[in-house]
C-alpha cells in the first residue's frame, strides 16, 4: 500500500513546486501572494496598524478600534474595519474633538 492509500498523505499546495505541506507553511502561506487575509489575529491586527498588543487592546476597549468577530472560540479582526478605524483616528497635532462628531 502506498502512503497516499493509507490516508496519511500530506496535503500539498499545487501553486508551489515543492513538497512542503501547507500546514507546515501556515495559513497565510496558503493564500496566493497578492491576496491579503480578510481576518487577522489580535497580534496581526495590532501589527497591521503599527502598534503593540497592549495598546491595541486599549483601543478596542475604548472603541477606537473595532471589536473582533467570533469564529467558534477564535477572535478575528476584519482588516477592512481596522483600516476604517485607523483612518478615523486623529492626525498628529490634531485634537480629537468628540463634539465635531455629534450631529444635531
In short:
The protein has 104 residues and is an alpha+beta fold.
Walkthrough of the structure:
By secondary structure, the protein is an alpha+beta fold. It has a domain at 22-89: Multidrug-efflux Transporter Regulator, Chain: A, Domain 2, CATH 1.10.1660. The protein is built from five helices and three strands, in the order ααβααββα. The chain has helices at residues 22-25, 27-30, 42-48, 53-61, 79-88; strands spanning 39-40, 69-71, 74-78. A three-stranded antiparallel sheet has the order 1-3-2. The radius of gyration is 20 Å and the shape is elongated. The chain starts with 21 loop residues before the first helix and ends in a 16-residue tail after the last helix. Mean pLDDT is 80; it is low at 1-9.
Report how far apart the termini are. Answer: 75 Å
What kind of sheet is the major sheet?
3 strands, antiparallel
Q: Give the number of helices.
A: 5
Strand order in space, largest sheet: 1-3-2
Which word captures the global form?
A: elongated
CATH structural fold name of the domain at 22-89:
Multidrug-efflux Transporter Regulator, Chain: A, Domain 2
Task: Kindly estimate the percentage of residues that lie in beta strands according to DSSP.
Answer: 5-15%
Structural class: alpha+beta
The total strand number stands at: 3
CATH class of the domain at 22-89: Mainly Alpha
Give helix and strand order, one letter per element, not per position. HHEHHEEH
CATH architecture of the domain at 22-89: Orthogonal Bundle
* Gyration radius, in Å: 20 Å
> How much helix, percentage-wise, in residues?
25-40%
Amino acid at each position: 500500500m502506498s502512503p497516499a492509500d493509507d490516508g496519511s498523505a500530506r496535503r500539498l499546495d499545487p501553486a508551489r513546486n515543492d513538497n512542503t505541506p501547507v500546514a507546515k507553511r501556515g495559513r497565510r502561506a496558503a493564500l496566493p501572494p497578492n491576496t491579503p487575509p480578510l481576518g487577522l489575529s489580535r497580534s496581526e491586527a495590532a501589527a497591521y496598524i503599527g502598534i503593540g498588543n497592549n495598546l491595541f487592546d486599549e483601543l478596542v476597549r475604548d472603541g477606537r478600534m473595532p471589536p473582533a468577530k467570533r469564529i467558534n472560540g477564535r477572535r478575528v479582526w476584519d482588516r477592512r474595519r481596522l483600516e476604517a478605524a485607523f483612518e478615523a483616528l486623529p492626525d498628529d497635532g490634531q485634537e480629537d474633538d468628540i463634539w465635531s462628531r455629534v450631529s444635531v
